[in-house]
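Protocol step 4 of 6.
Sequence for S-adenosyl-L-methionine-dependent methyltransferase (Catenaria anguillulae PL171) entered exactly as in the expression construct, tag removed. Do not edit the line below.
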Amino acid sequence: MTTSTSASAPAPATTTGAALPFRDRFGKLSDSYSKFRPTYPPELYAYLAAQCPQHDVAVDLGAGNGQATMSLLAHFARVVGTDGSLGQIEKARERLAAAEGAQVRDRVTFEVCKAEHVDRVVEPESVDLVTVAQAIHWFNLDPTYSAVSRILRPNGLLAIWTYPIPTFPSAPLLQSAFRAFYEHLHAHKWWDGIIRDYVDNQYANLPFPGSGTHLVEVLPKPAPWVVTRSWTFDDLVGFLGTWSAVGRARDEGGVDIVGEWSGRLREAWPKDEGEVQVQWTIHMRVAKKQVEQY
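Step 5 output, structure tokens:
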């Protein structure tokens, strides 16, 4: 399966204004992210473009390897992708270098930059859309919202989205084993508490879009998108290897949790099936920059 994502990680999400050190959790996983994480449907980007009054500039925060950044080119004249991880941005620049046509390459810029500092690399009130795909739960929230408010034009949009753990509609035994593995990570506290809670709750409890800015949430929320792929068992193992909890167990606890659980997951895999269907549900929240008229 060919997949990718966009999430690189500063320190865990916080609503305070205090500066937090950057912790690069995913730079070494750029190749795995590209291969095993889900891509986002064209309809998602088309929906956002339809909500924007102008289509000059889009900015993708937590751009990771550039998957969402490049997809925005179908709707915007110029796109900027930022990420605090040098490893992820290097992978994004490789993706850009491989793109066909100088016109495409000239329309995209990738910058190593924490989300809360995006106003240092993007001009004020110059942006029509800011996107954050499966990443904002890692951000320092209030400073990020303030920076986004500064770079957005009036009526510009901030769109954030996430996907909880995948499901296996045609494989109930695998679904049960997968869920047990996920809960095992929780029980041993390898997940980052509130951060994972934000994702599990589809960002419903994530503070958004902050206070003290011109950002106001647009309601009702968009209907979720469903992404369906086919996985081999190796795809499943590769996907689990991209989870921050798995990396934390390995790096801090010396535990190869995927290795320990691979037998149980293999036993739950449908017999005589080389591939199974896997689904993610993508949930989005959108805010608009509103400026008072005098």
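Step 6, annotate. The chain has a mean pLDDT of 90.
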